[in-house]
């Protein structure tokens, strides 16, 4: 009878399972992580770059590749068309003479002249073919050219000059720096422009505020002057009113004085 049940090792040992299920009815299954076997062109590119930078320090090479163990990196490098030449010429337990050793090395080298039959990447195959022809002296240059060519293919760049292939990595690095620096420079220019505009706006506001303050001060002076003139006008009006009143009083009081004089004259004549 089959049960849809999964137990960990601790539960299995402690017999902590479903009621009615015995450990004898369970089957142990080893769970192992699936190892990635297919290498992408990008991972191969990182592997070649790491080999050029770190050499045979496979721990750093694996860290540079990322997601691959040291054994996987070594196995992949050996499977590369030009990787097996680092293993040296095939050694035999029974070597009778130097001529036989040279013959075996030439045979192995001849077999390596066409190692790209099992290679899906034509650029790596071409690098392997050239390295097999020239020997170990040009392996580094061939790997460098393969790295550059793969990088340019990923970016959609096609170049036909071998010199451009050799300097492609440096050009890529400089282009990457330019791409990173260009937005930063543009942002700094925009920031400086906005800061300058803000300073100009603040300066204009300060000038307008000073003009408003001057206008208010001038208005206050004019208001004070008008107040003084108004007080003077009121005083002048009061003086004119007093003069008119005095004149009116004088006019109304003059006939009475004449009649009094006339009465006195008449009285004198009568006597």
UniProtKB/TrEMBL annotation:
Q: Where in the cell is it found?
A: Nucleus
Residue stretches making up the Myb-like domain: 36-81
Residue ranges of domain HTH myb-type in the record: 31-73
Keyword check for Nucleotidyltransferase, yes or no. Answer: no
The UniProt entry's GO biological process terms, in alphabetical order, are: green leaf volatile biosynthetic process
List, alphabetically, the SUPFAM superfamilies matched. Answer: Homeodomain-like (SSF46689)
Q: Which domain of life is it from?
A: Eukaryota
Q: Which organism is it from?
A: Solanum tuberosum
Q: Which is an annotated GO molecular function term of this record?
A: transcription cis-regulatory region binding
What InterPro entries does this protein map onto?
Homeodomain-like_sf, Myb_dom, SANT/Myb, SANT_dom
Gene3D superfamilies registered for this protein in UniProt: Homeodomain-like (1.10.10.60)
Give GO cellular component annotations, separated by semicolons. nucleus
Keywords from the UniProt entry: Developmental protein, DNA-binding, Nucleus, Transcription, Transcription regulation
Whether rRNA-binding counts among this entry's keywords is no
**Protein name (database record):** DNA binding protein
Domain SANT, first and last residues per copy: 34-85
The encoding gene: LOC102584029
């Amino acid at each position: 009878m089959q049960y849809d049940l999964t137990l960990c090792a601790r539960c299995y040992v402690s017999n902590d399972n479903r009621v009615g299920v015995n450990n004898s009815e369970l089957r142990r299954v080893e769970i192992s992580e699936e190892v990635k076997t297919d290498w992408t062109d990008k991972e191969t590119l990182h592997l070649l770059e790491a080999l050029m930078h770190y050499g045979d320090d496979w721990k750093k090479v694996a860290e540079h590749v990322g997601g691959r163990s040291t054994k996987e990196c070594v196995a992949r490098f050996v499977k590369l068309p030009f990787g097996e030449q680092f293993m040296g010429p095939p050694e035999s337990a029974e070597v009778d003479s130097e001529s036989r050793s040279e013959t075996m090395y030439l045979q192995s080298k001849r077999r390596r002249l066409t190692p790209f039959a099992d290679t899906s990447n034509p650029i790596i195959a071409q690098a392997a073919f050239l390295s097999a022809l020239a020997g170990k002296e040009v392996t580094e240059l061939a790997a460098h050219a393969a790295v550059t060519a793969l990088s340019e293919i990923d970016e959609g760049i096609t170049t036909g000059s071998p010199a451009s292939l050799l300097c492609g990595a440096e050009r890529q690095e400089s282009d990457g720096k330019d791409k990173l620096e260009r937005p930063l420079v543009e942002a700094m220019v925009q920031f400086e422009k906005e800061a300058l505009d803000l300073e100009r706006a603040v300066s204009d506001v300060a000038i307008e505020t000073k003009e408003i303050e001057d206008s208010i001060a001038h208005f206050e002076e004019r208001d004070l002057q008008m107040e003084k003139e108004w007080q003077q006008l009121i005083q002048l009006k009061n003086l004119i009113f007093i003069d008119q009143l005095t004149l009116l009083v004088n006019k109304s009081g003059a006939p009475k004085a004449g009649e009094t004089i006339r009465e006195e004259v008449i009285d004198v004549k009568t006597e």
